[in-house]
Amino acid sequence: MRRTLAGPRLLLRRLREVMAEEISPQERLDKIVVLIAANMVAEVCSIYLLRADRQLELFATEGLNRTAVHRTSLRLGEGLVGLIAAEAEPLNLTDASAHPSFAYKPETGEEIYHSFLGVPVLRAGQTLGVLVVQNRAKRTYTDEEIEALQTTAMVIAEMVAAREPGAMFPQANQLDARRTMQIEGQPLADGVGLGEVVLHEPRVVVTNLIAEDANTELDRLEAAVDKLRLSLDRMLASRDVAHHGEHRDVLEAYRMFANDRGWVRRIEEAIGNGLTAEAAVEKVQNDTRARMMRQTDPYLRERLHDIDDLTNRLLRELVGVPMSISAKDLPKDAIIVARNMGAAELLDYERGRVRGLVFEEAGPTSHATIIARALGIPAVGQVAGVTSLCESGDSIIADGSTGVVQLRPPTDVQNAYAEKVRFRARRQAQYKRLRHRPSVTLDGEEISLMLNAGLTVDLPHLEEAGAAGIGLFRTEIPFMVAQTFPRMREQTGLYENVISAAGERPVVFRTLDIGGDKVLPYLRAVQEENPAMGWRAVRLGLDRPALLRTQQRALLRASAGRRLRLMFPMVTETGEFEQARAILERDKLHLKKHGHDVPAEIKLGTMIEVPSLLFELDELFRIVDFASVGSNDLFHFLTATDRGNPRVAERYDAMSAPFLRVLKTIVDRAAVADVPLSICGEMAGRPLEAMALIALGYRTLSMSPSAIGPVKAMLRKLKANELRARLLPRLEAGRWDGDLRLFLKSYADDQNIPV
């Protein structure tokens, strides 16, 4: 395609000249409507912008009464202008007054005009205003004229949504594009973060809108589309991509869309109207997004993410923008906003600059959430559409205790949250004063509060939180952060640091729990339809013993002359534990043979997180030295719920009678066998759930550092045996027809127990 439209391209060049002039905001708008009217041979051109109160205000006009500017307004859906804003679709009418939505505004003097063309001013699919042209004669505007007006509206949208819109519009802070928003989400990690938005996968900001030469832009587009298609073909041909399954289906859908001539043709038409290749891509994305956001079909709405991802890939091909922000560009008070994020991606950010996390999709048991809790970073999940509603640099507040996100908050709201932060700091100081107090209930039950850790930055929390030790050291996290596989010397040094930091306090190491959704960047991922139930953890270690043996030898050497507590994850049957134990014995003999010291004592245990192991508890407790319940995976496997799927992750409550019965069975059988038992899932770190666990008989709980203070405050007010007497009868089949969570909350309130 090699064509040019002199009219639209000339208009865009004139707009660029007006944008460069040093004139007042109102003069700029007035010049713009005059230019558009002249180019479109229209007697009227008007710009309406959407205010924060969702009213469309007339900001500038050529042809209507000038006195109506900033006086005339319409509600969303009111009149033709309101209809265009609500539906985000152009409206082309021969006789405007005959349309059922026509609303007469006498102060404008528009009753003498019949033909009407209006287009939405769109950005990221959001309506920011409406651009209108009118004529007295009854006529139908051509497709070329509609396209030209839409292209011009895109330039206006960039002006409205500018990072410092006050330089353009005196009423900028009142515009909808910059309005304050309160968005409800799900609390994931406690705390409050105040700062500025940093998009994890930043949208490409198109600054060069107006093309100098259409043919050059068409060549750029063709080259970028070819690169995009080739990259998708390579991914689909890669051995790393399974021949079937959801991952491949998504890539196939991407390839089909990338090869859609209709999509490319629309971009080419926008270039023909005078836009650069990247501006044309953004325009087509805006139009497509606006239509799909207003679809009622949930499947079509879900495809929005796919279209956004593919379009952003093409934009990055055109302008060469990297996927994520560099560490040196991260502000000191960053709130990371993302659709979702892996644990390694989160750890790539400089911890001291991250004040909070906001996710569109992540749930309470996603690995990013678990890391956030461990690092004490407030986090909110399930925040619908947040990545499209904000821009990098916007002010934002993430309240991880309530799940509320405040976007572009006013000063009084910021001050209120700043006070909340100060109050929380005072409360944390109270928890800190408890750190040397004994973890004992009111009726004398001693509870051991242990730390979940995985990085050296976690180690100071042992003393700060007053933890009794490390109940779970996730050895896979350092592997996930590293760019290459850590050598034995590096692993040994890390484990020595952990043991030294703990001093006399116990440390329980868990062997590598990789595979599934815990992918190491330097190992080829195996695509599986159900990775959580696939080749991971001890299964991978037993099949690839060199991986397991390297780690175990590092742990044996680091623990030389001391006690080593080691447990294996994802054990499905007792035979797997015995195989892993046999490998460790061979590694110990190997080290002794080569003159290395070995631990003075070795205690081996297992995670209980696969339901099949529940039917071998007696056999298991005869061969292990200790065990730990991984409540996250155990709950999700028992209830067949995917921890990363927001539709089902919250459907079932871990405080339900069936799951609490399972937990009670485990603790009872361990007590009979006299085997030490702990629980290290997320339940242990929430005061209400921890209260239930103590009533069931658990006496060792392992949790994130920030949870130790609240849990200790709770248990020191608890009469464990009294609650046990009230709770256990309600777990019996047929004895309880209510909500156990509500029962426990009511009990805590009655007894003045802080939960």
UniProtKB/TrEMBL annotation:
Co-factor(s): Mg(2+)
Domain of life: Bacteria
EC number: 2.7.3.9
The protein's enzyme class: transferase
Coiled coil stretches, renumbered: 211-238
Start and end residues of each GAF domain: 24-170
Compartment(s): Cytoplasm
Keywords: Coiled coil, Cytoplasm, Kinase, Magnesium, Metal-binding, Phosphotransferase system, Sugar transport, Transferase, Transport
Family statement drawn from the similarity comment of this UniProt entry: Belongs to the PEP-utilizing enzyme family.
PANTHER family cross-referenced by the UniProt entry: PHOSPHOENOLPYRUVATE-PROTEIN PHOSPHOTRANSFERASE
Protein's recorded name: phosphoenolpyruvate--protein phosphotransferase
Lineage: Bacteria, Pseudomonadati, Pseudomonadota, Alphaproteobacteria, Hyphomicrobiales
